[in-house]
Amino acid sequence: MIWLKVFAVLIVGLISGITNEVNGSDHIIVETENVKNDGRENRELGVQYRLACPGLSECVSLRECPQILPEATKRCYNSDRSLFCGVNQNYEPYVCCPTYSSPTYATDDTTSNFDKSSGSCGRSLVQGSSYKKLGAYPFAARIGFKNINTGHLAYPCTGSIISKRVILTAGHCALAKADGHRLSSVRIGEFDSTKDPDCAESGFCAPSAINHAVSHVVVHPDYVNGQYHHDIALLILRTPINYTVAAQPICLQRDRTNLVVGKRATIIGWGKISLSTVRSPEMQYMDVPLASWDQCLRVYSASGALDSQKSIEGQWMCAGGEGRDVCQGFGGAPLLITESGITSQIGIMSFGSENCGGIRVPSVYTSIANFYNWIQENIPIE
């Protein structure tokens, strides 16, 4: 596995440091040639060295303990070698794997895990408040449409990861009917579309991005194609996502508490921004202020975009208007806030103006709080 080898390069120095501190410590060097075969199909073969683990854990290859990967990645990045206990001849890491169910390392999904009180969402594995590159916002996914004639994939929309098999996006993205294209897959774990795998300047790399086929789509029943009310959908993937430094689930904001006018929020995705003449291959982010709904009414009421017999109060949010904004390619993208180290999604990019980025020209987002219960009720049971 490519990602495992890349990860091993990062920690081999840490593991080497462990051997220099073994004498006088709680760790005991295990001579692997004398270890009896216990039914694990000779997994010790090829091990350069392996250390005993304390407590209710055992030293095994990281590939045998995938549930510990997020925690191991985080500790590795912070130069914490406490989980690592050895390495084999291919420089694949060995870790102290819990032999019991540990909430610290658990990554199992339930339908309520997108609530920030669960503690299992909205966290980046990369530390640093000013860091905005690979791994800073691991919550976004690219929605792919395949050309039925050439097989070429295009990614005109963005979504957010809310569980291992569910992507949240806009209804207009899920039901897009571009000529000769059809909804095909969701690309998970990408930061820069020109690189695979993505690597940060500081030296760590993410696993290669993976395209997950879409099993089926759940669109809000009151959404009408070509309009924007109830502009929300769930994409159900055929296979579960493996959470990594570049792919993590986002929390969802269940109410509008503290979402006051002027509060800063961040939109992330791949597309063109008003400040640039070209579309960057890297994930983009932009901080925008929450605006009053009256400001959006002044901009869009004459266009008819807000008119619908099924339109309901509170379904939209207004953000932007500072003279800069995100433009093409950000449909379905998440609008985020971060508080106390936890990132929550408060909106889904629905539509904007042709005068993208104009002064006092905000964009319109589907409100997560308004559709929180609908999302929870429509996530399939794993």
UniProtKB/TrEMBL annotation:
UniProt xrefs under SUPFAM superfamilies: Trypsin-like serine proteases (SSF50494)
Give yes or no: UniProt keyword Metal-binding.
no
Q: Which GO terms describe its molecular function?
A: serine-type endopeptidase activity
- InterPro entries referenced in this protein's UniProt entry, alphabetically: CLIP_Serine_Protease, Peptidase_S1_PA, Peptidase_S1_PA_chymotrypsin, Peptidase_S1A, Trypsin_dom, TRYPSIN_HIS
Alphabetically sorted, this entry's keywords are:
Disulfide bond, Glycoprotein, Immunity, Innate immunity, Secreted, Signal
Entry-linked Gene3D superfamilies: Trypsin-like serine proteases
Q: Does the keyword Secreted apply?
A: yes
Localisation per UniProt entry: Secreted
Q: Where is the signal peptide?
A: 1-24
Q: What domain of life?
A: Eukaryota
| One biological process term in Gene Ontology | innate immune response
What's the short name of a Pfam family annotated to this entry?
Trypsin
Domain Peptidase S1: from-to ranges: 125-380
The record's Gene Ontology cellular component field reads: extracellular region
Matching PANTHER family, A to Z? FI17609P1-RELATED, PTHR24260
Q: What family does the database annotate?
A: Belongs to the peptidase S1 family. CLIP subfamily.
UniProt-recorded name of the protein: CLUMA_CG019585, isoform A
